[in-house]
Write a structure and sequence with these properties.
This protein is of the alpha/beta class and 203 residues long. The protein is built from six helices and seven strands; from the N terminus they run ααβαβαββαβαββ. A seven-stranded mixed β-sheet has the order 3-2-1-4-5-7-6, sandwiched between helices. α1 runs antiparallel to α3, α1 runs antiparallel to α4 and α2 crosses α3.
Length: 203
């Protein structure tokens, strides 16, 4: 899969995605942003996977917060897509690893995207009031809902990509949390799903 094959993406956005992909390959040789094996399927495994998360977000987007951003999925991809579609939107990437934060800042700068990178642990920073909150391969749903309670705006939506055990995670989380849930099947992994969550509160 190439950048050009992604649906509904302009030439300018394509160029930004190509710059980002090139940076990912270069930096992954130095720090562990993504697994070396997954670099071969970078577009489908990581970029297209992040694009589908972006498309599930309610528009317009005021403030997208990505927790545990790591290599920038889906946060940097969302910033690239919003740079043209909604340039006034705020983007905040939260990552505790300083080297990964250096990459994230480089990726935003080189792709010409606005965004703030916070080098800190998620549970120690003040509430971020996100209208869209994302986290990919970060923690179990129980933990993510704890983060959502802290950082999600009362009318905001959380988007959490999950693997094959997503139903089990939902069942366990419902023992301690109340939330509205929509499930979108992943277009890149038939066993996976993206959980669209709102109205988070403790039982």
């Amino acid at each position: 899969m190439t950048a050009q094959s992604l649906p509904d993406v302009s030439r300018e956005t394509n160029e930004r995605l190509l710059i980002y992909a090139d940076l990912l390959r270069k930096w992954t040789a130095k720090i562990n942003l993504v697994s070396r094996d997954s670099l071969e399927n970078l577009w489908e495994r990581h970029i297209a996977d992040s694009v589908q998360v972006y498309h599930l977000a309610s528009k317009p987007i005021k403030h997208w917060v990505d927790l545990g951003s790591g290599g920038g999925f889906p946060g940097v991809v969302a910033a690239i897509l919003m740079a043209e579609a909604q340039p006034s939107a705020r983007v905040t990437l939260v990552e505790s690893d300083q080297r990964k934060c250096a990459f994230l800042r480089t990726a935003l700068r080189e792709t010409g995207c606005r965004g703030e990178v916070i080098t800190s642990r998620i549970e120690t920073i003040p509430p971020l009031d996100a209208t869209v909150l994302s986290a990919r391969a970060l923690a179990d749903l129980m933990t993510l809902l704890d983060y959502a309670e802290r950082h999600l705006h009362p009318t905001g939506v959380a988007l959490f990509p999950k693997g094959a055990k997503w139903q089990q995670e939902v069942k366990e989380a419902q023992s301690k949390w109340q939330f509205a849930l929509e499930v979108a099947k992943s277009s890149t992994d038939p066993a996976a799903a993206i959980l669209k969550i709102s109205g988070v509160s403790r039982v």
